[in-house]
Amino acid sequence: MATRFAGTQYSPGLFDVAHDISGGLPIELIEQWLVSDQSHEDALELLGPHRVIGFNVVSDSAGLTRLTREHGLLEILAIINQPKEVVYRVGTAIGGVAVGVWAADNTQMFYPDGTSADVLVAALLTIQDEVKRGCHIQIGLGAHYGEFYRVAGGLCGEQSDAIEEFAENVTGGGEITISQAVRDRLNPDRGFELVRREGAWPSLGAVYTVVGGPRLAQLPERAGHYPIPYSEEFYRDLVALEQRLGDHALAQALTAKYTHEKVVVLIERAGETADTREIGLFNDLALTATLRDAGLRHLQEEHGEEIKVSSGIGIYTFDEPARALEFAETFRRELSGDGIDCRIGIDAGSVLIFDLAGGGRDIAGSPVNFASKMAQDRGQWGKIYLSDRVYEHVDVRGYHPVTFSVSGVDLVGFEG
């Protein structure tokens, strides 16, 4: 039986937070869930207005970990900007809608029910052709047709989580993978060449790699830009740098203009088993609200700032490594006392922090990626992971070195 949540578990001020500073967390929807009977019927009723059916297409960059060791932050943002421009230009030309804010190296597009699967897959092949031809980094693309929920500007639900995880962790650079539901909608006479992937993915069914097929007859012209998290001024500077990659003087000038040195704390909390998928979705939101509540109560004493809390992830910044570690250890103790597991990564370096047009903030930079790699990709529940850049500036005992490999790059952290 899943946990029942109550509003009394949270600080009274959490639900008084203005919508424009809620950081993408659907506070009002969570509050409605807390005052309901939290039944499957309640979940369906609350989710009803948010239900959408169509194609969910996600991309993720390949080899970014290695690139972050070879280029500065602004150069990395310029490099990952290139495929995002292609995905948006081609996707919107066939009726796709950009989902979320494309702050990181991944993208997400939603194509409503009625979109031709033949046209969609031809567009994905066209995108990969353009990325290979003109970009400095490759991407993997994953597509699934199904039912999703559009909440707080993003897509959520079991099927959305499944295709996002598949695109990020399984699909490689230059690949296009589609689920059985997409394949079922393809015209067998159009000549798409598919190879079935080994493995089982219950939420997606069989998965296929698209190895050939027709492309779009015409490449669409550029029309606007993807949902950037940046200011227009920063975006113009980023495009200028993209066109002058290798101009180290320009990269250094823009780095000095826009970035800050910060210690980044990334916290992922564990989920729990629910009676139904829909109840699980709301319980995940309630648990994420717990994450945000705990952060807000402890940040001031450690002189830290919340950047974002979304989908079970909290990201916070500090000026001092010792304060960041104290916050992380306090956070871990508190969540553990509530029966919630978490894993935490801490790194330091140059980051870009920006305000989002719809409210809230986001962050980009190598410390975010490295903290995520340590905690989310390789970390154990209940553990804190420090990079060597943080470890050398804090007085800790009980932490031991751990080595792991990500994208062919050996990384060293400290686990405790």
Structural account:
- The chain has 416 residues and is of the alpha+beta class.
- It folds into two domains: 50-245, Nucleotide cyclase, GGDEF domain (Alpha-Beta Plaits, 2-Layer Sandwich), CATH 3.30.70.1230; 259-415, Alpha-Beta Plaits (2-Layer Sandwich), CATH 3.30.70.
- The chain is built from 13 helices and 16 strands.
- It has helices at 27-34, 40-47, 64-68, 73-93, 117-134, 158-169, 180-183, 232-242, 248-258, 277-299, 321-337, 366-377, 388-391; strands spanning 51-62, 97-98, 107-112, 138-151, 154-156, 176-179, 193-196, 207-212, 260-269, 305-310, 313-318, 342-355, 361-364, 384-387, 400-406, 409-415.
- The strands form two sheets. Strands 1, 2, 3, 4, 5, 6, 7 and 8 form an eight-stranded mixed sheet that branches.
- Helix 1 crosses helix 10 (277-299), helix 4 packs antiparallel against helix 5 and helix 10 crosses helix 11 (321-337).
- The radius of gyration is 21 Å and the shape is globular.
